[in-house]
Design brief:
The complex is a heterodimer of chains A (113) and B (115). Chain A contains no helices and 11 strands. By secondary structure, chain A is mainly beta. In chain B, 0% of the residues lie in helices and 53% in strands. Classes of the chains: A mainly beta (113), B mainly beta (115). Chains A and B meet through strand 4, strand 5, strand 9 and strand 10 of A and strand 5, strand 6, strand 10 and strand 11 of B.
């Protein structure tokens, strides 16, 4: 069964550094999302992306965050200047069409020191 | 804005027994989707079951079934014949129909299965 692939599985970075989290969606999927889960807490929506533009973003998704799909395949989340509170599990999720279920990647654990 | 509430932070069940996890939600929409996701210690997010609000029939997926009460805005998950592999965090989630359709998650319920 096709799956959403996220890399790296674990990223450790120093506060103030830029990180890029990568996601390869399932090939025919058109809707892309990033979610965040701080350890022990609920899964929170960050941003949705469709037709090469952001369709919705949450309050968490401030100017430090950006998303893009630079080559038509990879879907990336960039955090420009990481803070300690950005430490979390970041999930990419994609789906084919409006009514289709969401498929999650295995997540990237980001640790900011 | 829609909200999802899971009032049980933790639940325990004996192997082979049945357990029900509760979920309520708040929305003014008439059509939407509801989901249960399982998150094992590996922290993957695995879709367990989904329900379309326009369908009166409760969704069933093998040992997993839901009790969807639209008027009460309740969406509970029943796990029958519980197995050790069912131990995980379970999240209830809501999604609107249409363009603005992110998933809104509840806080989760940790399910422990005793042998």
């Amino acid at each position: 069964e096709p799956e959403v692939t996220q890399t790296p599985s674990h990223q450790v970075t120093q506060m103030g550094q830029e990180v890029i989290l990568r996601c390869v969606p399932i090939s025919n999927h058109l809707y892309f999302y990033w979610y965040r889960q701080i350890l022990g807490q609920k899964v929170e929506f960050l941003v949705s992306f469709y037709n090469n533009e952001i369709s919705e973003k949450s309050e968490i998704f401030d100017d430090q965050f950006s998303v893009e799909r630079p080559d038509g395949s990879n879907f990336t989340l960039k955090i420009r200047s990481t803070k300690l509170e950005d430490s979390a599990m970041y999930f990419c999720a994609t789906r084919a069409a409006s009514g289709s279920p969401l498929h999650f990647g295995n997540g990237t654990r980001l640790t900011v020191t | 804005a829609q909200t999802v509430t899971q009032s049980q932070p933790e639940m325990s069940v004996q192997e082979a027994e049945t357990v029900t996890l509760s979920c309520t939600y708040d929305t003014s929409e008439s059509d939407y989707y509801l989901f249960w996701y399982k998150q094992p210690p590996s922290r993957q997010m695995i879709l367990v079951i989904r329900q379309e609000a326009y369908k009166q029939q409760n969704a069933t997926e093998n040992r997993f079934s839901v009790n969807f009460q639209k008027a009460a805005k309740s969406f509970s998950l029943k796990i029958s014949d519980s197995q050790l592999g069912d131990a995980a965090m379970y999240f209830c989630a809501y999604r609107s129909v249409g363009y603005r359709n992110k998933l809104v998650f509840g806080a989760g319920t940790i399910l422990r299965v005793k042998s």
